[in-house]
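pinging the channel bc i need a second pair of eyes. not urgent but kinda urgent?? the chain im working w is below, pasted from the shared doc
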Amino acid sequence: MSDELKTTTYADSGVDIDAGTEAVRQMKKHIRSTFNANVVADVGSFGGMFSLAGQLGNDPVLVSSMDGVGTKLKVAFMMDKHDTIGRDLVWHCINDILVQGARPMVFLDYFATGKLEPSVAADVVKGLAEGCRSSGCVLIGGETAEMPGMYQAGEYDLAGCIVGIVDRAAIIDGSTVEVGDVLVGLASDGLHTNGYSLARKVLFEVAGYGVDTYVESLGTTVGAALLAPHRCYANALLPRLVSHEIRAMAHITGGGFVDNIPRSLPDGTSAEISRSAWTIPALFNLIQDAGNVPLDDMMRTFNMGIGMVVVVPASKAESLVSELNDSGEKACILGRVVAGEGVHFID
């Protein structure tokens, strides 16, 4: 037996530094495509730097949030399609800070996998960059981690952090909401980024569909319907915050109407919503029917076709709906603010 020890390298442990370098090389063009004049450091610096010169307001407040895309990632893995999931993440985070009146400035991502595939990582960053560019946000930095043994082969995790800005006097916190105000709903594009554990169980396990199964009522495959990107409402709502006296907003994510709308309303007020105000999209009906899912569970798990709820004075509601529809959104009047607590549905 030889006394010589076999040489062990980092690559032998499952980490490929060269793959990491190649991934960054493929990402750079996407990242730089989001840069604007406020970016101080180039790609590759230890920290992203962003100048606040020229930013709005006399008393600017930074608004930050972070999130992930949940088990929607599983659908991306099943379809081997990775260039839209980043957009989901960015637009989800933008909507989260939008409800407080904030405009997005910078975004950072965290991408982790067991074995780094540069082309997959680059596709994810391509989606992140597209989401940022469309909303005037800079992809200022991030982390790409290769961690053997932590993830199943071909899978990864993705999370992101956003920082936006709003003038203190313009913060939207629901404090001015009054009984009689009107709730305006903006349509979603599918499930967005919530409820995928239930949707996957029902559609793939109970109903036996595959991602390539074409469903007539959907007009597309199950996979394509589930992977539809999270809609972003910033470009539609930011220019109308003042002109339409928007008093509160609720991003309809996990918890649906029931948990999210009350977060935006002051104590002593509740939301009265008409179930007939909008048509529930076919995908939600398919999930409910295939899994025999109780309606209450559906309403608390999914957005049910409404991705954002806006509260405005009654005198502003019709004009806001009209302008939003003219701009390409699908908006409708959902109901009104009444005395009480929680959310109440009427026929």
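so The chain has a mean pLDDT of 92. and The first strand starts at residue 60 and ends at 68. — does that match what u expected or am i reading it wrong
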